[in-house]
Design brief:
Layout (H helix, E strand, L loop, with lengths): L1 E2 L8 E2 L11 E10 L2 H7 L15 E9 L11 E4 L2 E2 L5 H4 L10 E2 L11 E5 L3 E2 L7 H20 L4 H5 L27
Antiparallel strand pairs: 1-2, 3-4, 3-8, 4-5, 5-9, 6-7
């Protein structure tokens, strides 16, 4: 894995044991992880030096390697995108449909180790299984570069499939490339 251990320093390689999933968690073998401006912001100290050391990387996808107790709806081998934000499911923010807000928010790659690694453990609730296989590099960036726009589209009651299927690879607003995945007309993305 790659570790950011101090502001202004280069990333360094480090070997760690493969983590084990706890109850409600899933071990994911990372297939792709995008590099985001937030990763550079982290290295420049933008989130604060108290966040380091940490493994960066939050635009990721992979394959389910192991399930913790009480995990349902996933099986070993499933392709999953990793939504980088987790929060207490009982919080007022989560219950009101705003899981990215509140004091309990934990960001993969900032507040806890991210996906510049071979394996990562995530809460099962943060994993998104696509309805059909998606090329890993495209799926990885969908969790951040497209998730925000998808949420905005939901808030203005615009069907996600309307704008996702119309995005072209030469569109300057499209951050997933070279060809974004085509989704069935009835696809609902939940983040």
């Amino acid at each position: 894995m790659v570790v950011a251990d101090a502001v202004g320093r280069r990333l360094r390689m480090e070997r760690r044991p493969i983590p084990a999933p706890g109850p409600g968690e899933v071990l994911v073998r990372i297939e792709a992880c995008g590099v985001c401006g937030s990763d550079v912001f982290l290295l420049d100290g933008g989130f604060g030096s108290d966040r380091l050391p940490v493994v960066p990387g939050h635009e990721a996808c992979g394959r389910v390697e192991e399930l913790g107790d009480d995990v349902t709806g996933l099986v070993v081998g499933d392709q999953v995108a990793l939504y980088y934000i987790s929060n207490d499911p009982a919080s007022t923010y989560v219950r009101s449909g705003r899981p990215n807000l509140g004091p309990g928010v934990r960001r993969m790659g900032v507040d806890l180790d991210g996906a510049f690694a071979d394996y990562v453990v995530r809460p099962a609730s943060t994993l998104i299984r696509p309805p059909a296989p998606v090329e890993p590099a495209s799926l990885a960036v969908l969790t951040d570069a497209v998730a925000q726009e998808a949420r905005a589209a939901e808030l203005v009651v615009m069907p996600v499939s309307t704008w996702v299927n119309d995005v072209r690879h030469d569109d300057p607003g499209c951050l997933a490339a070279p060809e974004p995945p085509r989704l069935p007309a009835q696809t609902t993305l939940r983040f």
